[in-house]
Amino acid sequence: MSAASPALRPAQGTLQWLGRALLPVIRWRVEGHLPEDPKFVVILAPHTSNWDLPIGLVCACALGLMTEYEHAFMVKDTVTKAPVIGPIVRWFGGIGVNRGAKFNAVDHMAEIFAKRERMMLAITPEGTRKRTEYWRSGFYHIARRAGVPVVPTYLDYGRRVGGIGAAIHLTGEIEADLDVMRRFYAPFQARHPELVGEIRFKAGDAARRA
Predict the structure, then answer these.
(1) Are 57 and 80 a contacting pair, CB within 8 Å?
(2) What pLDDT, on a 0 to 100 scale, did the predictor assign at position 6?
């Protein structure tokens, strides 16, 4: 399957049923509503634990994110081409990217957005579970180039709640847009609060992609 092809998905509603069934087992609940926009970039923050992925997947399934949209995430192309795990990763929406010097992930993902009718691209802007002083700006520039909003999602370990916020339609004024995200994420508690860094971009990183 090529990078621009739709991701294969289970029957509509199956994953949502499974997610809702698992919520009481893991003692979490969900809140929020699916965005009206047919295409968007999903960000999950703060990301401080290995538990964020399985809990986040259960919450995403329960909310309907994994059945209402073609879901995608970026991984190294060597992973998607692997003989055993490659088909599994692609089935879950993995899009292989070549991280060579000439590869432009922003343009690549904008082209894929343009070819799909309903799609969410999931990104963890911190890019690591360790504490970092900066967010990676790729999600912002992909959304701007593709003309789609950013939809913030969260795991609040203090309340054991996973949720979706309102879509953020980016203005191009980076600090103003980041202020919206700072206010949104301020109330939520990470599994390891001491690993939560600031919501900001490196000046050089933002400038290179602007």
Answers:
(1) no
(2) 39
Locate 50 and state its tokens. Answer: 């290995």
Of 105, 120, 107, 114, the C-alpha closest to 9 is 120
First to last CA, the chain: 31
Q: How far apart are CA 11 and CA 56, in angstroms?
A: 20
Tell me the C-alpha to C-alpha distance, in Å, between residue 89 and each of 19, 69, 109, 197: 19, 17, 17, 29
**Buried b / exposed e along 148-173 (16+ C-beta atoms within 10 A):** bbbbbbbbbbeeebbbbbebbebeee
Residues 6+ apart with CB under 8 A from 79: 85, 86, 89, 94, 96
| Contact present, 30 and 59 (Cβ < 8 Å) | yes
Dist. CA 80–CA 50, nearest whole Å: 21
**Of 185, 66, 182, nearest in space to 122 by CA:** 66
pTM of the model: 0.83
Instruction: pLDDT tens for the chain, 210 residues: list them.
Output: 333 333 434 445 788 899 999 999 999 999 999 999 999 999 999 999 989 988 998 999 899 888 888 877 776 777 677 887 777 767 767 777 676 656 688 898 899 899 999 999 988 898 778 898 899 999 999 999 999 999 999 999 999 999 999 999 999 999 999 999 999 999 999 999 999 999 999 886 665 554
Q: Among 76, 47, 48, 59, which Cα is nearest to 15's? A: 59
